[in-house]
Amino acid sequence: MFIQVEDSTRRIHVQVARQIARKILSGEIPEQQKLPSEMELCDMFGVSRTALRESTKLLSAKGLIESRPKVGTRVLSRSNWHFLDPQLLDWIQDLENTKSFLSKFLGLRKAIEPEACALAATYATIEQRKQLSVLFQNMLSAAENFDYEKWTVNDHQFHQIIYLSTDNQFYIPFGNILTTIFKLFIDESAEGGRFCINEHKGIYDSIMSGDAEKARSFCQQLLKDENQRLSKIEE
């Protein structure tokens, strides 16, 4: 069920927690199912009881499991999982059903990002507008040369700066905590050559000119399903 952990720069209890978490997130270990006993898990992973208990504390803090004395450890329902935890988002990467997570993440972006663009058009500082300008020029260059790696780096930073430019502390975590999922999302949606330059240019021009309504509208266009398909995108 699990493989033994090896010495690495990552702490042993984190390696154990990651393995268990990924099996839970993928559905291989379903909700409400009990995990093997503590002794069995220690044998499976080849770790001490202390390391295992540290890993279960970590998983419990993320809402994935619940441990009770004399009862055991069971997987909690998805409603308890802390999906905005950056470590949990990192563990989601490379799962076979990543696209289903990204599709739901697109729903979240549709709900909050257009308003973030509108706020950025109103409140972005001179320095933040300068940063956006540099990033957008880099995006143009990347698109012209079909440089996906350069595009991903700059597109991620472009959206991150927008969230940081809202002057609203409740938007800022989406530019910081979701760094991992943004990069994964952009990697997937840009694959195949469709960079949505016109939509990004519209957002950029609107923020630079301080037009909140247009910034909101262009962002809504960018996030339409046909522009954000999580598969190969044809020109």
From TrEMBL:
<dbReference type="Pfam" id="PF07729">
    <property type="entry name" value="FCD"/>
</dbReference>
<dbReference type="GO" id="GO:0003700">
    <property type="term" value="F:DNA-binding transcription factor activity"/>
</dbReference>
<dbReference type="GO" id="GO:0003677">
    <property type="term" value="F:DNA binding"/>
</dbReference>
<keyword id="KW-0805">Transcription regulation</keyword>
<dbReference type="InterPro" id="IPR036390">
    <property type="entry name" value="WH_DNA-bd_sf"/>
</dbReference>
<dbReference type="InterPro" id="IPR008920">
    <property type="entry name" value="TF_FadR/GntR_C"/>
</dbReference>
<dbReference type="InterPro" id="IPR036388">
    <property type="entry name" value="WH-like_DNA-bd_sf"/>
</dbReference>
<dbReference type="InterPro" id="IPR000524">
    <property type="entry name" value="Tscrpt_reg_HTH_GntR"/>
</dbReference>
<dbReference type="Pfam" id="PF00392">
    <property type="entry name" value="GntR"/>
</dbReference>
<dbReference type="InterPro" id="IPR011711">
    <property type="entry name" value="GntR_C"/>
</dbReference>
<feature type="domain" description="HTH gntR-type">
    <location>
        <begin position="10"/>
        <end position="78"/>
    </location>
</feature>
<keyword id="KW-0238">DNA-binding</keyword>
<protein>
    <submittedName>
        <fullName>FadR family transcriptional regulator</fullName>
    </submittedName>
</protein>
<keyword id="KW-0804">Transcription</keyword>
